[in-house]
Inverse folding.
């Protein structure tokens, strides 16, 4: 570990560890790692103030590759470990690295409770719609009918809509990005860091060994423009090969409209502070095979300011101290009723 | 007045029994404090129904509070009671077998109307307090309800609230019987009902009414004199095991200059520790009610990683859920205290009853070779010292420690000659500092002579490192699949825990000679009953010794020698024989198991008989 | 257990067991038990076809009082136990009894996974916003600031919005009722039984010992009309003392309007098949103390037809049998490659 | 051709090593099947890297497959290898220490270019296959890549696909060396690439190229003759432990006329059982991939309540999460099979390595007095019989049964003289029928002489009843807080499991006399190594016996007697000494532990030395 003095500004290199990265060649995790390492210096934090906590999975190997404090915990529990750390060390910048199995299958309960408690941490959910580390079983985000080691006849579980679930759990920052779009990913990472509260960033990540091409249509030239919708505040929802398509709300139902027929002013204007819009927006989740389906949104769906658990906790401690005075151990031990024997 | 006698007694056992709604627990606790304040040694055994509030008047709804107090040393709530106070028929039926022949029954006649008799499942027309079936006892029937209502007539309180103070009448009467002052109770009432002066007044009125009833009634009643006990000089308070545990944790955090993070998920009988701790946030205590036991233990691990003393507590079923994460803590080599307030098992079992059946789970209940320190409290006040010791070991040896208590210790009260903060042993965390020479790498798993690694917490510049549950190379802490390193690490983690034995006291006998015919070896809450049994037997001239094990892993270095210096070793446990397994394996000594698995403590009588049967 | 011959129609009495009911006098659980027992005969099922499965909690004592098959399982796992039972015994009518702690705290993960898998079972979630059995700690539905045994200075956890969570988890039937409205409760129970798929019924239940009056404003004469909104399909959202108030959507935000100013035709018309509407409707969850807050809806928020896990499972088994023929054990044991030694 | 010699050999050990991408596992498996089909006895030990695909060419990425085959009885994959096939420098470096002095190395020279040498961390300029450092071995270097490409030039395949068939060249060459037919492999390829005939053609071409290379090359090469083994006559197949486990479950379901519900959450090394079972839905098998291990075990309990045979599987960390629910199953007294395919621990430990360190967890790792039956498989094919037996016990004794396997058994392959369905022992569930007389109440916890209750499943008219985790009254199953009933039930559940011993075979010695100087007592996957060591020692005239325990709870009734009829008892375990604890406690016999905790199996050599050291 080289002793960079924090006076000279840190660079991505300073966040690289001496451990060799052990993902399959071509794995989407590499590019995410690269973006995270390149964003770190921009946070204006010292390395020792940063902690990466993961569960178990290919993605959860991540902390070993970050020259910060880190814990590779147990499967599904990174969110809970991080809760204990952040509740007691609000001074630290805590990053949770988790996979779709780690966070949505075994770790589902801790995820939704972290979201409601809203501790100020960042969750990077690597969604590859498969269990990578255990060699290719389906996950709670795998598609119906998907053939995997554990579903030779196709998946019969209805998949989670991760962002709908997280918003339903009262998350205060809900976003989506992807491994193949470094610029977008870096921007989202920066915003998630800026958000005071639990930031949930779902990152589409390609597992080229067990689920190759799961997100192709969102990343490949041929299809991406028609299939993806990039969200920008105060901007209308416009997408398509030459930005020729838009989204309009008809009653309670969003519909794709052609800008040749509808003026941009009548379109849905994105506002990531509008819970109503967000609740509908996370439902843009249809099977791309479906006729007239909605495009898949990327960006920040929703952001809300809500007090953080660790702050309220500290507040009660401070309040207790002002009300009762700093605890006196002898007084506590002796209690209210005592008697002498002599 | 009509005082039957003015007997002197060394000690008395009173059993208060009534409906969960009758305020039995409060009556018992108040008289306990009163007589403790007077200078008696006391031991109590609250015994609630499993239901929150089982239907009024039913047997399932009976709540009991047994109090043993005296002028001599008291180590257990007593085997059977001298006085039985019953508020209704169900209470009598459920408790009469606990009363000594010739004992006194104080019965609230109002609780023996046809409805109550039916609910208590007495055959039609049978009423025990009128049909002479209790001839063998000294029966005193009083219509407590009527008395109470009379006392409060015109107080303007509704009957509901009026009847709620019935228990004060009983308390007043008992205070009269034993010549105890009403003041402690009056102070308590003033504190309790600060905001409702009318209730203070009412309860005090009834309290006095009860006391005066003793003075004025025509009913012949015995009045007893129970002297203050010759306890070691000092200042005392009364404490329960769960209180002791909570205070011990706060004390350990203070003395180690660490913040306490207490993460738990409610479960009987451990929840009261959470309730107590959450009242003391002014000590910097952070209590976290997690979504489940897994989040509780893992968040505690997160807090420990951050440099706090992470503590988690539960009872058997919840501990089962924590076992995977405890393994992680063993790998991380971080301080962690896991509290198990044991209850009747298996599975949900008997949640409100006591048992000692989680010892093997504590020792062996994890995957892989996964050693943790295990220590157990023997009494309510010992819970303070023992959990304090658990914290010391966890912090100074960087290891998870399982602290075993049980429902009996948790809820029972006893006098405690409490220590001063200054006199508590010191606890010294060893935090890693960045004293690396240029180019030198930090060794997160570098060890001292105790085989203990340093605690390098986030925020410390230059010590950035990663830990995790995969096997790691000693020293660097890097992931390692090397076969020899794995065996080395397994042995290292084992020795690290084994060496704790060099830093804890050797096993002493609690009473009796250090060698001889029979050693009664106990652990946990059997302490009081064993101590009483042995003391009484020695009085009878029987040669028997008692040793009580606090350190269950590692075992005290001299334990084997101690055991081998007796012809026989008897091991009473409130389980099916667990410590006995450990000792037979460890020392190849054929210890004799003596087991009671009924959700209730041993009585001294049971133990004395067993001991005699071995020695004759 | 009396041997009622199923020829004569069953009555509520036939569902009463010989065990004495052990809840505190005045507990809301009594009335729920009564309604369930009175609805059972109307399902046209035999007693032996019905199974009640619960976790741990006061509410979870329920199965002991139902003269059907039943299991009082362990804390938080009733949903998972029921999943295994229903997946293998689709012929049974499975009812899950759970509390707010049992289902939303320790049992949160199994709940959301059951909802997405959509097995055809009924979940009755007794929400009393407290842990009853363990004597009064706060729960994931307790209100911010609520004082309880474990929160002497008030709850700092942001509570779940249970229905938003369940809808976010892709539930196919989302409803709310209360212990104090027997007629409404019976109707909802019947509808939940009719729904093919996982039915989630949140039942507001008063714990008169540890959280008395939590739902008073929805049950007491003085307030209920202005605070509750009863949902009926194809009907406008109207409520208020003399049905003088309604709900209208303005942009994406629902607002309370006065019918003297707005015509009923411009109001939000309830349609429990409209996911868009449901996503907004479950957000009617504001603190009643808040000025101009929305009323609390009761009834069926959402219903969707989606294939059930157990049916898809059976289908794959049947398909496998038609494709490969009923399994031949000897052929399986012998495998593809064998050799003789003689 | 340039045949060096035409040696005869009893048995040969080949170690294939290469990059995870090199198809090593497939090469090994194919040659195993080929030579097994030929009639050899075989034993294999696949050894993968922990990473999915560690970076190509690195030491971490080396994948190994060791095969021991011969004309004599083969019980283990062999201590060290005669032939080492290495596809690159890392493979050589990682495996050379496994090769016997004078052994043969077949090295793919193309895998020793500067890049590969650097990745394998050889010092700059050092190339082991050219610098003579391997003089002590018979080194054969072949540019397999070039050969393969030549063979496929003009096949129209891209280099990527071309290079993928490199392993076929090696396989062909090995087949030549041992005179084995290529047909089994060709059939396999035809099946494998049904949909891509061009790949069939290509691979077969390369396979032949490898074989012909042996015939034609000028490089001096030894060719060996390894006769078919004198195995008992019959029809054989090759099987791995996980396959055996899957088949055993299906067979048990069939023979008991129950439907199999297999609920699990993926985890190495247990996942392959799920993969295998999910292919056999036409047997009515329902596989359920749950959201976590807790849902897996509890859903299996739900299925058992419904009248299916509920089975759940995991490895150590996942088993830890199931321990609470196993307690529920103990209370419910329902059939349940819990499979633990053990791996290196503690915590996440060494997921891809083998270990036997979860025995104490299986026996004691639950809260309360919570007895379950525990049995362990000894070999791959024994996994079939043992898991079948686990199901029989679970169903006929209405109890949870823990079945222990491990990573070594799970992935290792061996020949199996498989049984016919007809010859499998019967399994008879006892379902409760409604034969109640009018007014008679159904007794869900009524018991037979085995203390087993009947299985009353939903849908059975008139038997409606409730079960749960609270203590229950015997017979009625109603909740009971009665102290005596609790103790009675604890003892009853204990005896119920203990009585299983009356229905299982007594412990026999696997080899050697039933009494004498030394008994080597093993359990689980140490079987092969112990058997080999004892056989060889007896050949050397050393008097030693071997017994292998399948039934770990309850222990066979005669085990104590057997142990006591030897002067010494040696207990080799791939843990820190667990069975030894149990036996010392149970029989007060000072058994000698012999432990290896390296994530790899014992070698026969290690065992022989230890045994000798005891006997001399
Ligand atoms: C308690 C426990 N159960 C199961 C496992 C096995 N396991 C490790 S990672 C994993 C899932 C990996 O999938 P995901 O979380 O999506 O991460 P990915 O590998 O796809 O990045 C599983 C099932 C484990 N390590 N621990
Ligand atoms: C594993 C486990 N953890 C904790 C408990 C203790 N416990 C029993 S019920 C309960 C919560 C009860 O609250 P809820 O689910 O809302 O049911 P209610 O009593 O309010 O009806 C808890 C924490 C337990 N029995 N098992
Ligand atoms: S298995 Fe998939 S997710 Fe895992 S490292 Fe390989 S490519 Fe990446
Ligand atoms: S504690 Fe509350 S929920 Fe439980 S039975 Fe009593 S009133 Fe009902
Ligand atoms: Mg994944
Ligand atoms: Mg509740």
């Amino acid at each position: 570990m080289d002793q960079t003095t924090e006076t000279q500004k840190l660079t991505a290199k300073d966040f690289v560890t001496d451990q060799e990265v052990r993902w399959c060649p071509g794995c989407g995790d590499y590019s995410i790692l690269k973006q995270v390492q390149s964003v770190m210096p921009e946070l204006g934090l010292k390395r020792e103030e940063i902690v990466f906590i993961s569960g178990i999975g290919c993605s959860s190997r991540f902390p070993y590759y970050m020259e910060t404090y880190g814990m590779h915990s147990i499967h599904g529990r990174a969110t809970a470990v991080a809760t204990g750390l952040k509740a007691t060390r609000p001074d630290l910048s805590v990053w949770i690295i988790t996979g779709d199995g780690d966070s949505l299958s075994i770790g589902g309960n801790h995820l939704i409770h972290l979201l409601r408690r809203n501790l100020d941490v960042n969750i990077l959910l690597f969604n590859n719609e498969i269990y990578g580390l255990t060699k290719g079983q389906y996950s709670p985000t795998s598609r119906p009918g998907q053939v995997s080691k554990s579903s030779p006849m196709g998946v019969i579980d209805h998949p989670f809509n991760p962002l709908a679930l997280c918003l339903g759990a009262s998350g205060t920052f809900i976003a989506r990005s992807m491994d193949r779009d470094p610029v977008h990913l870096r921007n989202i990472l920066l915003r998630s860091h800026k958000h005071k509260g639990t930031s949930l960033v779902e990152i589409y990540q390609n597992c080229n060994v067990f689920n190759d091409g799961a997100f192709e249509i969102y990343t490949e030239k041929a299809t991406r423009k028609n299939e993806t919708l990039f969200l920008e505040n105060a901007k209308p929802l416009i997408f398509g090969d030459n930005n020729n398509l838009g989204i309009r709300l008809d009653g309670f139902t969003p519909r794709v409209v052609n800008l040749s027929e509808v003026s941009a002013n009548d379109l849905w204007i994105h506002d990531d502070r509008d819970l109503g819009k967000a609740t509908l927006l996370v439902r843009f989740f249809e099977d791309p095979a479906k006729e007239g389906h909605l495009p898949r949104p990327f960006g920040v769906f929703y952001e809300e300011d809500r007090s953080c658990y660790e702050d309220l906790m500290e507040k009660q401690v401070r309040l207790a101290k002002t009300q009762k005075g700093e605890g006196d151990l002898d007084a506590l031990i002796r209690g209210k009723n005592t008697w002498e024997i002599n | 007045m009509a005082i039957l006698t003015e007997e002197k007694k060394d000690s008395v056992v009173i059993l208060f029994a009534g409906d969960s709604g009758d305020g039995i627990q409060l009556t018992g606790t108040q008289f306990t404090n009163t007589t403790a304040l007077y200078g008696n040694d006391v031991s109590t055994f609250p015994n609630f129904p499993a239901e929150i509030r089982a239907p009024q008047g039913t047997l399932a709804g009976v709540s009991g509070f047994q109090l043993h107090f005296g002028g001599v040393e008291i180590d257990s709530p007593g085997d059977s009671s001298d006085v039985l106070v019953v508020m209704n028929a169900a209470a009598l039926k459920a408790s009469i077998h606990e009363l000594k022949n010739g004992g006194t029954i104080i019965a609230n006649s109002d609780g023996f109307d046809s409805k109550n008799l039916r609910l208590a499942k007495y055959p039609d027309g049978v009423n025990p307090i009128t049909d002479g079936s209790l001839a063998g006892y000294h029966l005193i029937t009083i219509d407590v309800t009527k008395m109470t209502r009379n006392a409060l007539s015109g107080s303007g309180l509704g009957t509901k609230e009026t009847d709620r103070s019935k228990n004060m009448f009983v308390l007043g009467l008992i205070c009269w019987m034993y010549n105890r002052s009403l003041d402690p109770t009056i102070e308590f009432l003033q504190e309790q009902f600060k905001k409702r002066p009318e209730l203070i007044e009412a309860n005090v009125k009834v309290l006095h009414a009860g006391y005066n009833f003793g003075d004025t009634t025509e009913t012949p009643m015995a009045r007893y004199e129970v002297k203050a006990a010759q306890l070691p000089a000092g200042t005392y308070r009364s404490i329960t095991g769960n209180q002791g545990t909570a205070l011990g944790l706060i004390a350990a955090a203070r003395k180690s200059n660490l913040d306490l993070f207490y993460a738990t998920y409610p479960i009987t009988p451990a929840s009261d520790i959470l309730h107590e701790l959450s009242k003391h946030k002014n000590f910097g205590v952070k209590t976290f009610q997690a979504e489940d036991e897994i989040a509780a233990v893992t968040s505690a691990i997160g807090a420990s990683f951050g440099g706090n003393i992470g503590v988690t507590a539960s009872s058997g079923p919840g501990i089962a859920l924590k076992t995977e994460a405890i393994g992680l803590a063993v790998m991380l080599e971080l301080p962690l205290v896991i509290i198990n307030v044991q209850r009747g098992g298996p599975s949900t079992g008997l949640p409100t009853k006591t048992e000692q059946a989680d010892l093997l789970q504590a020792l062996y209940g994890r995957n892989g070779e996964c050693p943790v320190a295990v220590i157990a409290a023997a009494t309510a006040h010992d819970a303070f010292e023992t959990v304090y010791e658990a914290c010391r070991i966890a912090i100074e040896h960087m290891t998870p420690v399982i602290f075993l208590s049980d429902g009996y210790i948790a809820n029972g009260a006893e006098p405690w000659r409490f220590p001063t903060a200054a006199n508590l042993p010191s606890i010294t965390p060893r935090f890693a500092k960045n004293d690396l020479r240029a180019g030198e790498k930090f060794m997160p798993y570098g060890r001292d002579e105790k085989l203990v690694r340093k605690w390098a917490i986030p925020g410390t510049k230059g010590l950035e490192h990663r830990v995790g549950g995969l096997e790691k190379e000693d020293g660097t802490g890097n992931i390692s699949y090397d076969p020899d390193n794995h065996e080395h690490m397994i042995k290292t983690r084992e020795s690290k825990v084994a060496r704790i034995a060099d830093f804890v006291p050797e096993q002493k006998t609690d009473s009796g000679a250090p060698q001889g015919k029979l050693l009664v070896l106990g652990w946990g809450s059997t302490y009081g009953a064993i101590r009483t049994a042995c003391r009484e037997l020695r009085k009878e001239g029987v040669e028997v010794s008692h040793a009580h094990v606090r350190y269950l892993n590692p075992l005290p270095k001299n334990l084997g020698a101690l055991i081998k210096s007796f012809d026989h070793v008897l091991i009473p446990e409130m389980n099916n024989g667990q410590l006995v397994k450990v000792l037979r394996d460890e020392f190849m000594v054929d210890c004799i198991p003596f087991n009671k698995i009924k959700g209730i403590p041993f009585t001294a009588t049971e133990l004395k008989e067993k001991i005699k049967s071995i020695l004759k």
In short: Chain B touches chain D through 66 residues (CB under 8 Å). The two ends of chain B are 51 Å apart (CA to CA). The longest strand of chain B covers residues 99-108. The mean pLDDT of chain B is 94.
